[in-house]
Specification:
The protein contains ten helices and eight strands. It is an alpha/beta fold. The protein folds into two domains: 2-59 and 298-335, no CATH class; 88-294, Zn-dependent exopeptidases (Aminopeptidase). The strands form two sheets. It has a six-stranded mixed sheet, with helices on both faces. The chain has a two-stranded antiparallel ribbon with strand order 2-3. Strand 6 (196-201), helix 5 and strand 7 form a beta-alpha-beta unit.
Length: 337
């Protein structure tokens, strides 16, 4: 008897999976056809209403298309892909025109202190300061993310500011950002060093325990996208526990080093508009991919609910067909399929 029960459960699971796959590919669902004529009538009525609405919508769209053609626009921009839920990114263009070398704690209640904000590095070939490049990149990133439907705030929009690293993190905290992105360029004593990298708080950082997992996920996601298009410096990911901009942050945070300004060739590339735009587009794609992992559509949850429901349905069908139908309809409602 025990073997028979196990066999029945296995068969029920297999049948549930097959029927679920078939059901998901039909407009109404093959299981729904088992319901009463009243349910079928409601489905037909809803289908007729949907058809009428579709026809009306097509008429409106055709009218809009005609009106747009009459405007004789030559520059058509494809519609931006928007995320389904609000997602706020605070972008911090690193450094500023004048460094502030006063000290501030590296984290809440910390005794160790660091400079409030430094001036950054300078391009060896272009002579461009890092704070200028950082703001250029920030404006590009803001534009790319807004096209994708993100909400974006910059910690600074000019060079003549005095905002410490702690204060920049507190801006992200104040707005409860979904992601805090710190934009920087790298520097080295070696002119051969080049490539993109991402810094994140360390796992053992006592100030950032609550945001470590999401920060690490964001960094990994960005690196995965960036590595397909640009050179990555060494392994690309570095952990830091001594950065004020990390330690004061209460929201997920990453620091991107978009390239080495101390490498003559890369310094020139970073000042090339086409190259910088391409690099920032990839960065925006990485941020978008991370946002989707945090604000998913929940399809996997629906699949799990409906699979469990169907297992119960087919198992109970051995004993009571009415109970089976009830359970299926219940899980259809819960899972939203």
């Amino acid at each position: 008897m025990k073997r028979l029960s196990i066999f029945v459960v296995i068969i029920a699971c297999i049948i549930s999976f097959i029927v679920l796959r078939l059901d998901s590919q039909t407009e109404i669902g093959i299981i729904n056809s088992l319901s009463s004529n009243k349910v079928e009538k409601n489905v037909r009525e809803k289908s007729m209403v949907a058809t009428e609405l579709t026809e009306e919508q097509e008429e409106r769209e055709n009218t809009v298309m005609i009106e747009k053609r009459s405007e004789e626009k030559t520059d058509e921009t494809p519609p931006a892909t928007e995320i389904t839920e609000p997602f706020l990114v605070v972008i911090d263009p690193g450094h500023q025109a004048k460094a502030n070398l006063e000290q501030e704690p590296i984290g809440p209640d910390a005794r160790e202190t660091k400079y409030k904000v430094t001036g950054g590095t300078t391009g060896v070939a272009t002579g461009k300061p890092e704070y200028v490049l950082a703001l250029e990149a920030a404006h590009l990133l803001k534009a790319q993310l807004e096209k994708k439907g993100f909400q974006v705030i910059l910690t600074r929009s000019s060079h003549d500011v005095d905002i410490s690293n702690r204060e920049r993190a507190e801006i992200a905290n104040k707005h409860e950002a979904d992601l805090f992105v710190r934009l920087h360029a790298d520097g080295s004593e070696s002119a051969e060093m080049n490539g993109f990298s991402v810094l994140v708080p360390g796992k053992d950082n006592p100030y950032t325990v609550a945001i470590y997992d999401d920060s690490y996920m964001a960094a990994q996601t960005v690196l995965s996208l960036m590595s397909k298009e640009v050179k990555i410096y060494q392994n690309g990911l570095y952990f830091r526990n001594d950065l004020s901009g990390f330690n004061w942050s209460k929201v997920p945070v990453i620091l991107t080093e978009i390239g080495f300004m101390t490498n003559p060739e890369e310094d020139k590339k970073l000042s090339n508009e086409d190259y910088l735009t391409h690099l920032i587009k990839q960065l925006a794609a990485g941020i978008e991919a991370y946002a989707k992992t945090k604000h998913g559509d929940g399809s996997h949850v629906s699949f799990a609910f409906s699979t469990i429901g169907l297992v119960f349905c087919f198992s109970s069908c051995l004993f009571n067909s009415h109970c089976s139908l009830f359970l299926y309809i219940f899980y259809k409602k819960v899972a939203g399929i």
